Amino acid sequence: MGKTPVSEVVDRLGPPTNKTPSTQVKDVAFIEYKDRPDHLKFQTRANVVEAEFRHVKPGSPQSTLQYWRHRWRGQLTTFMSVQTNPGAHDLRVKQFSAPNLGAAVLYDVSSDRVTQVVRYVR
What we know:
This protein is mostly beta strands.
């Protein structure tokens, strides 16, 4: 990521099921593979991948916050609330991240489950 062209992702995974321009950031788009079990989604800018989002299957070991606490043991981590909808006051989603690894997980407090893994450009 960061140097991976979108064409390399398409060569590896095939054509995306959806491509959507960002409504908030100029030159940013999202390509999605909704037909995959992990529903891969890539954030791109100028045809280069900036971030990868992967859904976590309910009931899998990766769906627990404890899994990620153990996996990132010894790393600097942060845990903070995420506002999922503009203007929302109910912050039931938390982000547990390991900035040095360029990775984070989104944790839904109401279901006590990690729902998504995110890898960022470092």
